[in-house]
Design goal:
- By secondary structure, the chain is an all-alpha fold.
- The chain has one domain.
- The protein contains 11 helices and no strands.
- Helix 3 (27-63) packs antiparallel against helix 6.
- The chain is elongated and about 85 Å long.
- The protein starts with a helix and ends in a 15-residue tail after the last helix.
- The relative contact order is 0.12.
């Protein structure tokens, strides 16, 4: 049954996963990491600009005397009811469906506000979904790069690693500890692959291996990404905090 189900082959593969193997180039993984990170930065900057534009539009509405957030367009009968509720809150003379159908100036103005707000909000939502998709691509690309880099240390005669290839990737997904452990993982990778350290002593890399300053800079940026993200960016960039519930604005 073990041979039929493939269980024997799986057991043999698990038993050999830490055994030395030939060096495997990581150049392709590096290219994918660069492409994924570049895409992530571009989408994040566009999303930040879009969020800023949304906040600016809400500020303009506030200056026009509109103190609440417009309803989003849903193309249903409930959309009409929301327009009427919005008009009642703002004290605008748009109180019946007949006025909306007739496109009176008051109702028409509110519907224009709703259309523009829906447009900017939908654009921001699509950009956020795209950002999450690119983030997942980064996870796969960075995980593959990190795993192969850790395994390659075995071929460089860098013995007694503190992090196995599997754990080097795993620590990225452990809350709180993922702010520290990845930094330690890459410090080990750079020390273990330092070409100036002799391979005659397979543990000498632990004391003589050098860690470039750029690794510490990367760690600081890595932590900053967790602190400065789409959920907190509004707290830093503008006074009106944006969220998925779009809190009501108050008069200045």
């Amino acid at each position: 049954m073990g041979r039929i189900t493939g269980r024997n082959e799986m057991d043999r593969a698990k038993a050999k996963r830490y055994e030395p193997y030939s060096y495997e180039s990581n150049s392709t993984q590096i290219r994918w990491v660069v492409v994924a990170l570049t895409a992530w930065v571009v989408v994040a900057l566009v999303l930040a600009w879009q969020d800023r534009a949304t906040a600016s539009y809400l500020g303009d509405l506030q200056n026009q005397g509109i103190a609440s957030v417009p309803p989003t367009q849903q193309s249903t009968l409930r959309d009409v009811d929301k327009i009427l509720e919005f008009a009642a809150i703002e004290g605008v003379d748009c109180t019946t469906q007949e006025q909306i159908i007739a496109l009176t100036p008051e109702c028409s103005n509110l519907m224009d506000v709703q259309d523009k707000y829906t447009s900017v909000k939908d654009t921001g939502a699509m950009l956020f979904v795209l950002l999450m998709a690119v983030f997942l691509a980064n996870m796969f690309a960075f995980g593959a790069f990190t795993h192969r880099s850790s395994r390659n240390l075995l071929t460089l005669k860098s013995d007694k690693q503190g992090f196995s290839p599997e754990k080097s990737v795993m620590w990225f997904f452990v809350p709180v500890l993922n702010l520290i452990k990845p930094w330690q993982v890459f410090r080990e990778l750079f020390r273990g692959s330092d070409p100036d350290v002799t391979t005659s002593n397979q543990v000498e890399w632990k004391t003589k291996g050098k860690v470039p300053v750029i690794v510490n800079v990367w760690a600081a940026i890595f932590v900053a990404v967790f602190l400065f993200n789409p959920r907190t960016i509004g707290m830093y960039w503008y006074s009106v905090r944006l969220s998925t519930t779009w809190l009501l604005l108050t008069n200045a």
